[in-house]
Amino acid sequence: xxxxxxxxxxxxxxxxxxxxxxxxxxxxxxxxxxxxxxxxxxxxxxxxxxxxxxxxxxxxxxxxxxxxxxxxxxxxxxxxxxxxxxxxxxxxxxxxxxxxxxxxxxxxxxxxxxxxxxxxxxxxxxxxxxxxxxxxxxxxxxxxxxxxxxxxxxxxxxxxxxxxxxxxxxxxxxxxxxxxxxxxxxxxxxxxxxxxxxxxxxxxxxxxxxxxxxxxxxxxxxxxxxxxx
Amino acid sequence: xxxxxxxxxxxxxxxxxxxxxxxxxxxxxxxxxxxxxxxxxxxxxxxxxxxxxxxxxxxxxxxxxxxxxxxxxxxxxxxxxxxxxxxxxxxxxxxxxxxxxxxxxxxxxxxxxxxxxxxxxxxxxxxxxxxxxxxxxxxxxxxxxxxxxxxxxxxxxxxxxxxxxxxxxxxxxxxxxxxxxxxxxxxxxxxxxxxxxxxxxxxxxxxxxxxxxxxxxxxxxxxxxxxxx
DNA sequence: TGCGATTAACTGGTATGGTAGTAGGGTAGG
DNA sequence: CCTACCCTACTACCATACCAGTTAATCGCA
Lengths: 229, 229
Description:
Two copies of one chain form a homodimer.
Chain A: H1 16-29, E1 38-39, H2 41-48, H3 52-64, E2 68-71, E3 75-78, H4 83-106, H5 110-125, H6 131-148, H7 152-171, H8 177-193, H9 197-208, H10 210-221
Antiparallel strand pairs in A: 1-3, 2-3
Helix pairs in contact in A: 1-3, 2-3, 4-6, 4-7, 4-8, 4-9, 5-6, 5-8, 6-7, 8-9
Chain A binds a DNA duplex through residues 15-17, 40-42, 45, 50-54, 56, 59, 70-76.
Domain HTH gntR-type (chains A, B): 14-81
Keywords (chains A, B): DNA-binding, Transcription, Transcription regulation
Pfam families (chains A, B): FCD, GntR
């Protein structure tokens, strides 16, 4: 969820374009920049004290992820959250991660299981009200799964696709829900530990379908953030 | 495989950046631009009679697909084909398309099956020596599958991921192989027609694993195009 | 002749200038 | 009063200029 602390401004050590991209991406996902809001190349550039050029590159990349819409000679706008887009992204993610856990369960690596178990313990320690801490650990967990399967490229795809889902998850405030998600993590890990490929796959699919439960509710209560649906 | 005819130059009707991107992408996949070759922003710009700006945007997008590598202050180079990258891409593609055909087989749509059968017939008509014609139809076939499942976004992901595989496929010249691929298409369609989800999934997975057979041979015979392996 | 330091040419990254095109407000005409 | 037009202000897109950093070749010296 890219919750990782990002400097508020722009640092000089790295190229500017990607920095602007990550900054805007985080602000869109965290709903600081609201759907429908207008973003101007020159305005953003002025605010961040950079030129329009890197801002433009950031806009292009954001538009490829579906977070903004660039209308030539008209303006660039934060997209409203599209239920269809969220479900499409979820579908792709489920497909990939289902095969990932299958792969891990097949070629068991005790080290990976140990690390995953350790992470689940860590997740349980998180205070129930600290949502962003959990989201960070959740991202780490799924990333570790992909890495354990030796599929770090697949993780890149997931990370890009995840953006749409993360926008929704950030709005989801029900804290009690977190324990449920951690339980699901635990089931995935234990299925992997016992080389239960089908079980691991099913557990993962179930886990990633959780968002389908909360989505309609959120889309209803925060209708102004969603694309007509 | 983006074999679709692309104008040799740059037209004025559309924004320039994406045009340059598609042009270079096609030339890399078709091995007109060879792995290791140096691409200069200014040189490409001069050749196409555009400014460096859109060329730069194209380079960025190509680097995200892993087709070029941008080394700041040093140069931009066409990446060598990486066997690992091809297999990673293949893994992601298999995961997504496996779920796609499952979905179609589940919710049978006679129209889709008819269209797919028609396409298979068309594929059989292609002369055995016209490789690019088959590759076009193959791309259409897989695109139609995704569209039939209502997952056009998933197709976008596949299209991006496919680039690495297409570089290899373009080098694969064994014509006889084509009939085998068409047979596999046929099996996929017939499994869908009988609502055989598991069968369709397995047929698709087998189909997408074909490249694993030819990959080692190609990587051996055209070693200069591949990253040390 | 061989080797090291210097420099000139070139790279991508950033900043800025210029252009076609859109949108919206205000005004003139019916 | 309503409508149609124009004009201004803004947009993203493209082109150009400048910069820091890398590379490689050449020149000077041992």
